[in-house]
Design goal:
The chain has 16 helices and 20 strands. Strands 1, 2, 3, 4, 5, 6, 17 and 18 form an eight-stranded mixed β-sheet that branches. A five-stranded parallel β-sheet has the order 7-16-8-9-12. Strand 13 and strand 14 form a beta hairpin. The longest helix has 21 residues, at 435-455. It is globular. The protein is 31% helix and 17% strand. It folds into two domains: 2-141 and 380-458, FAD/NAD(P)-binding domain, CATH 3.50.50; 150-216 and 235-374, no CATH class. The protein is of the alpha/beta class. It has helices spanning 12-23, 40-43, 64-69, 79-92, 182-194, 218-226, 228-236, 256-268, 287-304, 308-314, 333-336, 383-386, 398-401, 435-455, 465-480, 510-522, and strands spanning 2-8, 28-31, 99-100, 105-111, 116-121, 126-134, 156-159, 174-178, 197-202, 208-210, 328-330, 342-346, 352-356, 359-362, 366-368, 371-374, 389-391, 420-422, 461-463, 528-530. Bound molecules: flavin-adenine dinucleotide and NADP nicotinamide-adenine-dinucleotide phosphate. NADP nicotinamide-adenine-dinucleotide phosphate (NAP) is lined by residues 51-52, 139, 145, 160, 178-184, 186, 203-204, 326, 329, 347, 352, 375-378, 431, 490, 495.
């Protein structure tokens, strides 16, 4: 079958891409590996899963009526509510008929003579399309540690991103949880409320800030919706694509009292969450300012966690800049460790050795348990793309091209891979932003390019190698102005053994990024060959 466009992935990105391409009169099909739509929100069903960008922002902005009719029940919606929202969007815009579920794409090869992408699923189905859009997600390939002995473990084990549909009841069980990123931090309080014993194995303490999640009342939701267009407009002009009331002053421009007041205001009130990251204009570029905020956060941990041993383990070390690893946004995470049946173990100093039939063994101890929970993250940004055999011009393989790290032009197109586009992938603000906002920006931009191509009867849209080199250089330069590369994070590929260490996002914010891609468009798609 030959189509105008094939889209891989039915999360926020693939769904919006389908909507826009169909609106433009194209024939489109979305191929999705999962049994349902929703991407991240289909797969990550672990207890406590919810967004960390407020739902009023972490949602599509393309349809005013949709914004008006959907009723979020909490400031930060749960996984199941977000999944219901995505399903509502799919039905409301009659998108389901073009989404093919249970179909994992295994290969995509570019046929140069016919300027077509030839795509095969793992089941051998073959489809062709003029354009191929990879909406495969930044965080869609889970990482299970290669743990010796896991097959012999007599209890059950789970991964946060492959949680059983029917849920898990940990009542009365002894649970070992590995990982203290956003997923581990969100599930700790919920599992602790059920389990008879919860032992959290932590390799690196990360910073976590209070979410101050609250339910909407009919009045508060109505008031928020009345200001929706203004809210969206402010989000577009904010560095992360969401308005966080950024302080425009550097720490040095404020007095000691003003600095403390600013931090307290962001920690306690003002909505909490990522607002903390906008406390000072130089927070992510000036080590002194960053240290000030890191110290403030460590003091908060020490104030909440009563046992000094636990508090010390939970406090991030001095070599981790605040916010350089994705900040966690929690509800009662630190306080959970005040319960006697909840413990934290530093496996950086006492490394995990193996699973045994009855639990987990570290170098010096054994933790007997009924269940092991892996909240060990993802092969982020590149994992999904590299797991497909993608071949461009002259048979060049994306895996080979990206062996030293991902490269792209504008984070959208890859030299040597004509007519292929990536949504919210490496080289774009992507995971450093409100991802739904970034997805809409990318899809809208791609659709404009395709309309231009159609008008000019262009069959082949290819990023030029020199344009890609320039973009990669720019991304590295921008990242090096910040503290982000100082952390061993998934942004850098540091969480996967053997993965190249490259900062994988465009760090300088959504407004600058949008201005740059707009400039390219208005300069006759400079850096692209439209043939
Ligand atoms: P995904 O939602 O990851 O969808 C990609 C889809 O592609 C998946 O369904 C996958 O099955 C499919 N796929 C991949 N490879 C193939 C293949 N070979 N064949 C067929 N199908 C394939 N971001 C925020 O901005 N705010 C948040 O609050 C937030 N919370 C998050 C919470 C969790 C638990 C996680 C893991 C991530 C969170 N993120 C958040 C990031 C989140 O991934 C994005 O916001 C967004 O959901 C990504 O949408 P997407 O469509 O690009 O990718
Ligand atoms: P993550 O941030 O990568 O955290 C994984 C954790 O597992 C880290 O603490 C890591 O330790 C640990 N780990 C990995 N391998 C290990 C091993 N072999 N032994 C011991 N510990 C190991 O993954 P995540 O928590 O799933 O989150 C990923 C991203 O998804 C987030 O950063 C965020 O962007 C998104 N997310 C958002 C939310 C939300 O609040 N809305 C919730 C979940 C996820 P090290 O740090 O030492 O590597």
């Amino acid at each position: 079958m030959q189509l105008d466009m094939l889209v891989v992935g039915a999360g926020f990105a693939g769904i919006y891409q389908l909507y826009k391409a169909r609106e433009a009169g194209m024939t489109v099909r979305v191929l999705e590996a999962g049994e349902g739509v929703g991407g991240t929100w289909f797969w990550n069903r672990y207890p406590g899963a919810r967004c960390d960008v407020e739902s009023l922002d972490y949602s599509y902005s393309f349809c005013r009526e949709l914004e008006e009719e959907w009723e979020w029940t909490e400031r930060y919606a749960t996984q199941s509510e977000i999944l219901s929202y995505i399903n509502h969007v799919v039905d409301r815009f009659d998108l389901r008929r073009d989404i093919q579920l249970n179909t994992r794409v295994a290969s995509a090869h570019f046929d140069e003579d016919r300027a077509l992408w030839s795509v095969r699923s793992e089941d051998g189905e073959h489809l062709e399309a003029k354009f191929l859009v990879m909406a495969t997600g930044q965080l869609s390939v889970p990482q299970k540690p290669d743990l010796h002995g896991l097959d012999d473990f007599k209890g059950q084990w789970y991964h946060s991103a492959r949680w059983p549909m029917e849920g898990v009841d940990f009542t009365g069980q002894r649970v070992v949880l590995i990982g203290t990123g956003s997923s581990g931090v969100q599930m700790t309080p919920i599992i602790a409320a059920q389990a008879s014993q919860l032992t959290v194995l932590q390799r690196t303490a990360n910073f976590s800030v209070p979410a101050h999640n609250v339910p909407f009342t009919p009045e508060s939701l109505k008031a928020a919706k009345a200001r929706y267009p203004e809210r969206r407009a402010m989000g577009r002009e904010a560095i992360t694509g969401v308005f966080l009331n950024a302080n425009t002053k550097t720490a040095a421009e404020m007095t000691e009292d003003e600095r403390i007041a600013e931090l307290e205001y962001r920690w306690k009130g003002a909505g909490g969450g990522f607002r903390m990251l906008r406390a000072f204009a130089d927070l992510m570029s000036n080590p002194q300012t960053n240290h000030l905020v890191a110290e403030f956060a460590r003091n908060k941990i020490r104030a909440v966690v009563k046992d000094p041993r636990k508090a010390e383990i939970l406090s991030p070390k001095g070599d981790l800049p605040f916010g350089a690893k994705r900040l966690c946004v929690d509800s009662n995470y630190y306080d959970t460790f005040n319960q006697n049946h909840v413990d934290i173990v530093d496996v950086a100093i006492d490394p995990i050795v193996e699973a045994t039939p009855s639990g987990i063994r570290t170098q010096t101890r054994e933790f007997a348990c009924d269940a092991i929970v892996f909240a060990t993250g993802f092969d982020a940004m590149t994992g999904a793309l590299k797991s497909i055999d993608i071949r461009g011009e002259r048979g060049i393989s994306l895996r080979d091209k990206w062996k030293d790290g991902p490269t792209s032009y504008l984070g959208i197109s890859i030299a040597g891979f004509p007519n292929l586009f990536v949504i919210a992938g490496p080289g774009s603000p992507s995971a450093l932003s409100n991802v739904v906002h970034s997805i809409e920006t990318h899809v809208d931009w791609i659709m404009r390019l395709l309309r231009t191509a159609q008008t000019r009867q262009v069959r082949r849209i290819a990023a030029l190698q020199e344009a890609e080199d320039g973009w990669v250089h720019r991304c590295v330069e921008e990242a090096n102005k910040t503290l982000y590369p100082k952390a061993k994070s998934w942004y850098m590929g540091s969480n996967i053994e053997g993965k190249p260490r490259v900062f994988m996002a465009f760090v300088s914010g959504v407004p600058l990024y949008r201005a740059l891609i707009e400039e390219v468009a208005s300069n006759n798609y400079q850096g692209f060959e439209l043939a």
